[in-house]
Amino acid sequence: MISRGGPSGPRRRGSAALLIAASVRLYGALLVLYPKAFRRRYSEEMRRDFRELLREGLEEGGATELVRVWAQVLSDLVLTALKERGTLLTRRYAAYSSVDPRIAKRAAAMALFVVVLVAFGVTSAGLLQTPTYESSVLILVGQKTTGDTNAGPDVADLQGLTLTVAKAVPTTPVAEAVVERLEAPPEGGAGEVLANSSAEPDPGTVFVNVSYKDSDPKRAQLIANTIGIVLSKKIPEMPLGANAITATVWEPATLPETPLSPDPIRNGIIGLMLGSLLGLVLAFLLEHVSDRWKSRDELEEDFGVPTLGVVPKFRVSARRKETLVSKEGER
């Protein structure tokens, strides 16, 4: 009579073998966290020990013990990998500074090249931009009093009215009135006036700074003064109580001499800062990911044997190369 539980033994052993094989393969992939020299020296031994731990765990506790083994191995793997990476970096940069100064020289040259390249690119891009000029007109906000009272308007109330006047500047009625007064309005019409005009109250005063930006300094001055005139006409028409608001041009806009943007000095400083940062990062990455040996210490660490000698790098002239090639061909 055949036992029902008989066939389950081979199947169970086959499932365990597949599980162990998959786990070992995954563990081998995780070993990439270690440095290359460490993997070359210890990877096979670590895989073998891990396989034995899994086999013993499955035999003693099944899936529960397998999970415990994985948890312990993963924690040890992360900690030891970080430790080995830190040790490698310490040795590598110590080798850079003490053994092979050419590495530091090459990294510095690369960083300097990137600094100059980025600074030149940022400055050139700024110089290619169309300059923008800004002209401003100063508006004094007041209030007309009516009746027989001798009391003037309250300064705090007037300061609150400056916000109203500033809000009225970038509006369609003001922009359309400005375009109507101009003999040669902007190509974009009232929309362009809206986009390039701005106003800001001067804190603690009853003044409002009205500004206009344009690629032509004379046009920027003209439109800023026109906005001031339009405000002086339209603001008193606003129905805001018994006392009408007044807006008087206190200081007309002047012709701007220097553009608001671009700023070559500022762009150059930004380019130097970005270039320095990118140059250092690029030099570090290129040296970090390079798989070439940069010193005797790295070579001995990877292979575990002492260096017997070093063949120096030398240059051969083109004529000497032709002679050597011809002699080699005669053989």
Description:
The protein is an alpha+beta fold and 331 residues long. The chain folds into 3 domains: 88 residues, no CATH class; 72 residues, no CATH class; 119 residues, EIF_2_alpha (Alpha-Beta Plaits). Helices cover 64% and strands 9% of the residues. It contains 10 helices and 4 strands, in the order αααβαααββαβααα. Strands 2-3-1-4 form a 4-stranded antiparallel beta sheet. Strand 2 and strand 3 form a beta hairpin. Helix 1 packs parallel to helix 2, helix 2 runs antiparallel to helix 9 and helix 5 packs across helix 6. The protein is elongated, with a radius of gyration of 39 Å.
> How many DSSP helices?
10
End-to-end C-alpha gap: 82 Å
Count of folded domains: 3
- Outline: elongated
Give the CATH architecture of the largest domain: 2-Layer Sandwich
Helix content: 55-70%
Average per-residue pLDDT, rounded, comes to: 77
Q: Please indicate the percent range of residues in DSSP E strands (runs of 2 or more).
A: 5-15%
How would you name the oligomeric state of the polypeptide chains in this document?
single chain
How many individual β-strands?
4
Quickly name the level 1 CATH class of the largest domain: Alpha Beta
